[in-house]
Amino acid sequence: MADQKNLSEDEQLLAQLGYKQELSRTWSGFSNFAISFSIICILSGGINYVFIIGGQAYPLDIFPGHATHSTFGDGQLQAYAPSVPELVLGGGGLAVAFLITVVGVRVLRFLPQDELRATPAAAGAE
Questions:
Q1: C-alpha–C-alpha distance, residues 126 and 119, integer Å
Q2: pLDDT tens-place string over residues 25-61
Q3: What is the DSSP string of the chain?
Q4: Residue among 110, 100, 101, 114 nearest 32 (CA)
């Protein structure tokens, strides 16, 4: 064990409790892939929202100077209210995203976790 005189007061307290002060900021290859893939999916989903969903609610001027016509209203803006199946689909998508987040945090260990070591100090000095 390290010399107690060279340790700070916090490090000495942690040593008495059976912990060692350390900071590990490493990602495995799979964790790096998972985060990169998630970011790509979110960005591509945002782009699709702007051009597809947004374009259905309000016609976009994608080709400036050219006339565009709709097949159901000839350029007229239409009111839109989501139906019950669309609301359920949206809620299900949010539930799946939440489930993936919870599983990812638990399996990929993004958050710090306390792991008690079997030391006499941690076990109550029996």
A1: 10
A2: 787 888 889 999 989 988 887 777 766 766 666 666 6
A3: ---GGGS-HHHHHHHHTT----------HHHHHHHHHHHHHHHHHHHHIIIIIHHHHS---SSTTS----TTTTT--------HHHHHHHHHHHHHHHHHHHHHHHHHT-S--------TTTTT--
A4: 110
